[in-house]
């Protein structure tokens, strides 16, 4: 990669774009709403059940002019969700400022494991045991989305919930490959602990991206 491209990436004026698409939000507090998804490559958090492992290696995804990404989003949506990979590996100040200047709401889905950047209308924090969030992520979180893969994850979810603010909405979501086993357990858990809500990957049930 040449120095000029690297400098633009460092400024957030280019990003390693994996994919971008207009769809229906399938998870969490905004389930069922239309949004334009921008998936940025690069992640070293290493969740073994990740369903987009092809996003991990940023070198596989070409640096793309951020102005072009925003221009594409403007054609479709009033809300953009920036996800990954782990989007906070990159500076997101430039893209979020530009989106908001164009009247587009900015949402993020992140593990919170990297330094905070960007200007957000909605901050979805999904902590992972392998690389815990930084303090700023807990402070910013509007939504805590905990992936439940086994029984031990309920304890981890409670530990993470204790670190977010009172405004933060709490969600438990079954890991897709374990949904038959874990969903009934999540139902019981939420009924016993009603501060939590259930999130399902409804986009997969709907067979959409």
Automatic annotation (TrEMBL):
Q: This chain belongs to which protein, by name?
A: 7-carboxy-7-deazaguanine synthase
What binding details are noted for the cofactor?
Binds 1 S-adenosyl-L-methionine per subunit. Binds 1 [4Fe-4S] cluster. The cluster is coordinated with 3 cysteines and an exchangeable S-adenosyl-L-methionine.
What's the EC number here? 4.3.99.3
Keywords noted in UniProt: 4Fe-4S, Iron, Iron-sulfur, Lyase, Magnesium, Metal-binding, Queuosine biosynthesis, S-adenosyl-L-methionine
Q: Which domain of life is it from?
A: Bacteria
UniProt-listed HAMAP family: QueE (MF_00917)
CDD domains, alphabetically? Radical_SAM
Q: Please name the Gene3D superfamilies in this protein's record.
A: Aldolase class I
Q: Where does S-adenosyl-L-methionine bind?
A: 49-51, 85, 126-128
Describe which pathway this protein belongs to, using the record's wording: Purine metabolism; 7-cyano-7-deazaguanine biosynthesis
According to the UniProt entry, its GO molecular function terms are: 4 iron, 4 sulfur cluster binding; carbon-nitrogen lyase activity; magnesium ion binding; S-adenosyl-L-methionine binding
Q: How does it assemble?
A: Homodimer.
| Organism of this sequence | Tenacibaculum holothuriorum
Q: Where is the signal peptide?
A: none
Q: Which residues bind substrate?
A: 24-26, 39, 83, 209
What is the role of the protein in this entry?
A: Catalyzes the complex heterocyclic radical-mediated conversion of 6-carboxy-5,6,7,8-tetrahydropterin (CPH4) to 7-carboxy-7-deazaguanine (CDG), a step common to the biosynthetic pathways of all 7-deazapurine-containing compounds.
Instruction: Name the catalysed reactions.
Output: 6-carboxy-5,6,7,8-tetrahydropterin + H(+) = 7-carboxy-7-carbaguanine + NH4(+)
Annotated residues that bind [4Fe-4S] cluster are located at 43, 47, 50
């Amino acid at each position: 990669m040449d120095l000029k491209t690297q400098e633009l990436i460092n400024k957030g004026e280019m990003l390693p774009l994996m994919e971008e698409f207009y769809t229906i939000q399938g998870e969490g507090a905004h389930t069922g709403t239309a949004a334009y998804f921008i998936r940025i490559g690069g992640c070293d958090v290493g969740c073994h059940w990740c369903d987009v492992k092809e996003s991990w290696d940023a070198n596989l995804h070409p640096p793309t002019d951020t102005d072009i990404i925003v221009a594409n989003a403007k054609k479709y949506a009033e809300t953009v969700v920036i996800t990954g990979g782990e989007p906070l590996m990159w500076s997101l100040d430039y893209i979020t400022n530009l989106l908001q200047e164009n009247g587009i709401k900015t949402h993020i889905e992140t593990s919170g494991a990297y330094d905070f950047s960007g200007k957000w209308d909605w901050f979805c924090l999904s902590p992972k045991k392998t690389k815990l969030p930084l303090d700023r992520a807990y402070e910013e979180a509007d939504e805590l989305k905990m992936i439940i893969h086994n029984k031990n994850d309920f304890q981890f979810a409670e530990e993470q919930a204790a670190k977010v603010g009172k405004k933060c909405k709490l969600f438990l979501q079954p890991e897709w490959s374990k949904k038959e086993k874990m969903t009934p357990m999540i139902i019981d858990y939420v009924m016993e602990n009603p501060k939590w809500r259930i999130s399902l990957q409804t986009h997969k049930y709907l067979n959409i991206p």
